[in-house]
Amino acid sequence: MHNLQHNLDKVLDRIHSACDQFQKPAPQLLAVSKKRSASELREAFSLGLRSFGENYLQEALEKQSELTDLNIEWHFIGPIQSNKTRAIAEHFDWVHSVDRLKIAQRLAEQCPEGKVIQICAQINVDQEATKSGLSFEELPEFTEQVLGLKNLRLRGLMAIPAPADNFNAQKASFLKMAEALRQLQLKFPQANLDTLSMGMSSDLEAAIAAGSTIVRVGTDIFGPR
To answer: Quick one: residue 28, left, alpha or beta (phi over 0 = left, psi -120 to 50 = alpha)?
Structure first.
């Protein structure tokens, strides 16, 4: 418990310092809990964390079954295969990694009655061949089509930029995301787009400087795997 509390305090201090430095509102802290046990999530919940991000469906479902007594907001942040969309739609509140229209359509069709899934469009911000995600050019048409789907609410954009050690290089990628969201807000004012899911343990300060609203932190909270 002590280590987790210590780690969490350090992460929160980093977030608050960055918000003060760059005059930005505090983003939501999403605890990335892949490869972590249900008991570790329970401990993190006891320290005040409420939102957990999972990359692997089967692992996440097993943890969810053990933690039904906790009011956790579950975020799916990993790559999505078409045959996994039903379970994701049934068991997650947020899906950050929607990278093509087919996935959005399947989530909408398979969403349980009365539920609305919050989604982000995943952007391949640095045009890396090894990463999935929409291009900025594809984004307006994708947005228009997704806004017509039932059971989904498009909240904004998500990205995992190419690794960069330099703060300015990190921030440059995140600023592209912020500008893309601004352009969408102008083009689709009715959508109330409000989310930039970006920034992890290594670059959260640069993400906050660019206007991140959700930072996804795993290792710096839970420690090395």
So the answer is: beta
Q: Which domain holds residue 117?
A: 2-222
Cβ neighbours, 10 Å, residue 20 = 10
What's the number of domains the chain is made of? Answer: 1
Burial (CB < 10 A; 0-12, 13-18, 19+), residue 186, is exposed
**Tell me: the pLDDT tens digits for 160-199?**
999 998 999 999 999 999 999 999 999 999 999 999 999 9
Q: Yes or no: say if 193 and 153 are a contact pair by the CB < 8 Å rule.
A: no
The single residue listed with the structure tokens 């601004």 is 182
pTM: 0.97
Q: What is the CATH number of the domain that holds 52?
A: 3.20.20.10
Residue 220 has a CB neighbour count (10 Å cut-off) of 17
